[in-house]
Design a protein that fits this description.
heterodimer, A: about 300 residues, mainly alpha, MetI-like fold, two-stranded antiparallel ribbon, 14 helices, about 0% strand, disordered N terminus, B: about 280 residues, globular, Carbohydrate ABC transporter permease (chain B), transmembrane helix (chain B), transmembrane (chain B), transport (chain B)
């Protein structure tokens, strides 16, 4: 390392070792707070989680008792757990293509530096910083059947008026609408970064060869965006499967449990029904699913390259 | 042909901008309307669907001076928690990042791998044990539960380490020649050189905490101590009818965050871009 060679030759070797000791001590001191936090609030709870997931654990009532794999076995036949998984996956499957296309579209629209692009980038991004609680309460009102803004527009366009959040059949779509509104700008920024990494001269060469815009998009932009695309799809999937905040405020899981997602269900198990061991086992199953999906996606995107 | 395509493009751009902003504009304008007016003009398309007919500050008065739902108090709570977390995150994680980027010590690769491995542990799995830990420490219903576990940012260490690594070693050597100790060098050479990265991480941390919902919902049960997002959600479900007041509360809690973002958006967006490159 540079630091050592830069010490003037005239200085005795002792200084080097003394400095090295100082360096090691500084490193230890500087790492200690972060390491303590890591051990106490990440790794210790992680180990605890494994233990708790094999227990019948409730804060109220009797002492925790070891039940082996019972929690995991019970999950296999828990209808509510399956339907919460189904809701989460429905959300993911609808959101992934729509949101990816929309955020890539937004990025392409404002990619060229122009008079409007800077301001529009900010505008498209604003929903991202609007807090979950605020966005969800405002959308609750916008979705309202009688006097919601959305239905007024639908009526003006001659489309049928819908009660987005009170019908179990459509409530999840209402959650999806808000989810996309809130997150598209975030992924637009990721796509913009990806687009800006593609060398300009590739397009110039293609232009000289007479390739149309569409051809350029298909054979330059899309292939070179693969890494970015993989990141966006994986992030969207993970976010979708872990969805909870929006649901809490927008629908509180209703109507009739139709918007209960997995994380919402885990929260309910742990903090309303006080079944903490069972809830933690469910969280592990969720973790395994998320991990598996992202591994598969990573592999798929790698192979395509 | 080319012209129509361009018109189409600009129309699309503006429509999307309207879709992004309309809910927020509607919220802000709605907060200035008397309750009776909010839904009166909403059934047909007219400018009054947005623009108040009778402009009023009363919703704000009601929200700010409410004793049952003191929104300024909620905002104060949130500012304090988010501010404390942000300050701690910047200090603790930049120190660790400096050690990983510039110092020589034993087990460095192993320790770094240990930190990075924490990125795959999802918060959902540790939710219950962390809650039980807060219970055992007696931190439930106190800001310690919101602040202390949030002070570690593994992503922050990763990001700052990349940034510190680019600071030339010659700069550190020069400080050493001048007789500065390493902590001193960190404070007066490294940190000043990394201000943009620190603003980036600080802003992301602050906004993340401003938005946090699930954890405060679980660990805080004294209503007066609650964070703003949970307070707004609780308010809108209990006061279900007084929508203009809800919109005023929403607006109050959005304006500070919006201003912060507009002033510092360059850094925030830089941070997001960095998290994308990581993938």
């Amino acid at each position: 390392m540079e630091l050592r060679t830069a010490v003037p030759a005239a200085q005795p070797k002792k200084t080097v070792s003394r400095f090295h000791r100082h360096e090691r001590r500084t490193a230890a001191g500087f790492l200690l707070p972060a390491l303590l936090l890591l051990l106490v609030f990440v790794f210790y709870p992680m180990v605890q989680a494994v233990v708790i997931s094999f227990q019948n654990y409730s804060l109220v009532g009797s002492k925790p008792s070891f039940v082996g794999l019972d929690n995991y076995v019970a999950l296999l036949s828990d209808r509510n757990f399956y339907s919460s998984l189904k809701h989460s996956f429905y959300f993911a499957l609808v959101v992934i293509p729509l949101q990816t296309a929309l955020s890539l579209g937004l990025a392409l629209l404002i990619q060229k530096p122009g008079r409007l692009s800077g301001g529009l980038r900010t505008i498209y991004f604003i929903p991202v910083i609007i807090s979950t609680g605020v966005a969800a309460t405002v959308f609750k009102l916008i979705y309202n059947k009688e006097f919601g803004l959305l239905n007024t527009f639908l009526k003006a366009l001659g489309l049928p008026v819908t009660s987005f959040l009170s019908d179990p059949e459509t409530a999840m779509n209402g959650v999806i609408g808000l989810g996309i509104w809130k997150a598209a700008g975030f992924f637009m920024i990721i796509f913009l970064a990806g687009l800006n990494n593609i060398p300009r001269d590739l397009y110039e060469a293609a232009h000289v060869d007479g390739a149309s815009r569409l051809q350029q998009f298909r054979s330059i932009t899309l292939p070179l965006l693969k890494r970015t695309m993989a990141f966006v799809v994986i992030m969207t999937t993970i976010d979708a499967i872990k969805l909870s905040g929006l649901v809490f405020v927008l629908t509180n899981g209703g109507p009739n449990g139709s918007t209960e997602t997995v994380v919402f269900y885990i929260y309910k198990l742990a903090f309303q029904q006080m079944q903490m061991g069972y809830a933690t086992a469910a969280a592990f199953v969720l973790f395994a699913i998320v991990l598996l999906i992202s591994l598969i996606q990573m592999k798929l995107f790698k192979e395509e390259q | 042909m080319k012209l129509t395509l361009r018109t189409l493009k600009y129309t699309l751009m503006l429509l999307l901008a309207a879709a992004s902003l309309l809910p927020i504009i509607w919220m802000v304008f709605g907060s200035f309307r008397p309750y009776q007016e909010l839904f009166k003009y909403s059934s047909s398309l007219s400018p009054h669907i947005l623009i108040p007919v009778e402009f009023t500050w009363k919703n704000y008065q009601n929200v700010i001076f409410s004793t049952r739902n003191p929104f300024l108090r909620f905002i104060g709570n949130t500012l304090w928690v988010a501010g404390a977390v942000t300050a701690a995150v910047l200090l603790i994680n930049s120190m660790a990042a400096f050690a990983f980027a510039k110092l020589r010590f034993r087990w460095k690769p192993a320790l770094f791998a240990l930190f990075m491995s924490a990125m795959i542990i999802p918060g959902e799995v540790t939710l219950v044990p962390n809650y039980l830990l807060m219970h055992d420490l007696g931190w439930l219903n106190s800001y310690k539960a919101l602040i202390i576990p949030s002070m570690l940012s593994v992503f922050g260490i990763f990001m700052l380490r990349q940034f510190f690594a680019e600071i030339p070693d010659e700069l550190l050597e020069a400080a050493r020649m001048d007789g500065a100790s390493l902590p001193r060098t960190f404070l007066s050479v490294v940190l000043p050189a990394a201000v943009p990265a620190l603003i980036t991480l600080g802003l992301m941390t602050f906004l993340g905490n401003w938005d946090s919902y699930l954890w405060p919902l679980i660990v805080i049960n004294d209503h007066k101590m609650q964070m703003i997002q949970v307070a707004i959600a609780a308010f809108s479900s209990t006061e279900g009818t007084d929508w203009s007041r809800i919109l005023a509360a929403n607006t109050i809690s959005t304006v500070p965050i919006l201003l912060l973002f507009l002033f510092l958006q360059r850094y925030y967006i830089q941070g997001i871009t960095m998290s994308g490159i990581k993938g």
